[in-house]
Design brief:
This protein is an alpha+beta fold. The protein starts with a helix and ends in a 14-residue tail after the last helix. Strand 1 and strand 2 form a beta hairpin. The protein has a 5-stranded antiparallel sheet with strand order 2-1-5-4-3, with helices on both faces. The chain contains 13 helices and 5 strands. The chain is elongated, with a radius of gyration of 22 Å.
């Protein structure tokens, strides 16, 4: 994932999404050859020369001022997440040749925390959405059709974004699959902008692009959004409909690892369904205190 080409594609996608009348420009009665704003219109509104903006969009500018990025973000009406993404693309961290990906692991203390969360479904993931560990309820909620130990080995480790597009059983879990798919792609775009030298992430994007037209179409639109909390609407094959709140908690010092926990409103039908799931999965082997330590 080359940051300069990504920057150009991102800016083009945002120009195309903004109508001239949205920014006070009266469209000429003749047919416009491009959707959205033209380069020269954006440059004028952002108070930058068309030459300089064109060079930026083509990836031929080596230094970009904060003022210029702010002006472009303001003109394109970017969200906070989109503005952050723009900064990362315009100012990629200098990196040498991308290193081979190093498999991440959940620490022993994190696994112990997961095991202690007996009434709360929880999983630990890295920044690519690879599942590094889960507790009994987390496994039963999201991927009971997969082996309990699958997160322990990189070769069998589930990736929730890949599963959302390529695993029919996981896909069927979401009542609002389209919304979840859009959010997943937007979140992955944000991570990709921050880590352009992540080879494993690039391989994941490549695999999804080649094997899922739905992913490829969404990826080409350059959505950008982060989501650390919210509500999931699920259709679980064992306990039926679930409406669960979720929180994503960053684990300090783990290069992007985070714990995601799911909860139901006390006394609600979803709470009852979650308790039923807990009973149904009670026989699943849980990690012992002598679990593999990393």
């Amino acid at each position: 994932m080359d940051a300069t080409s990504e920057l150009g594609e991102f800016l083009k996608s945002r120009r195309a999404a903004l109508r001239p009348e949205d920014v006070g420009i009266t469209p000429h009665p003749t047919r416009r050859r491009v959707p959205g704003l033209r380069r020269e219109e954006l440059a004028t509104l952002a108070n930058v020369s068309i030459t300089h903006y064109t060079r930026l969009e083509q990836g031929r500018v080596t230094s970009v001022s904060e003022g210029l990025l702010e002006a472009i973000a303001r003109t394109l009406r970017l969200t906070e997440d989109e503005t952050s993404h723009l900064r990362h693309l315009a100012r990629p961290t200098a990196a040498s040749r991308p290193a081979a990906p190093r498999p991440a692991h959940a620490s022993a203390s994190t696994r112990q925390l997961l095991a202690a969360m007996t009434d709360v479904p929880a999983v630990v993931m890295d920044r690519r959405n690879d599942v590094l560990a889960w507790n009994r309820l987390g496994h039963g909620l999201l991927a009971g059709h997969l082996a309990w130990e699958s997160p322990d080995t990189p070769a069998t480790r589930p990736n929730l974004t890949r599963m959302l597009f390529l695993d029919e059983r996981y896909r069927a879990l979401y009542a609002d699959w389209d919304d979840q798919a859009q959010l997943a792609v937007a979140a992955l775009r944000l991570v990709a902008g921050r880590h352009p030298d992540d080879r494993a992430l690039a391989e994941l994007v490549g695999q999804l692009t080649m094997n899922s037209d739905e992913f490829a179409t969404r990826w080409a639109r350059h959505p950008v959004r982060t989501c650390t909390s919210g509500v999931k609407h699920l259709r679980h094959p064992m306990v039926g409909a679930l409406e669960l709140g979720f929180e994503s908690l960053v684990i300090p010092g783990t290069s992007g690892q985070r714990l995601i926990a799911y909860t139901a409103e006390p006394g609600s039908p979803s709470d009852a369904a979650l308790r039923l799931l807990g009973s149904a999965t009670a026989s699943v082997r849980q990690p012992s205190s002598s679990a593999v330590r990393h």
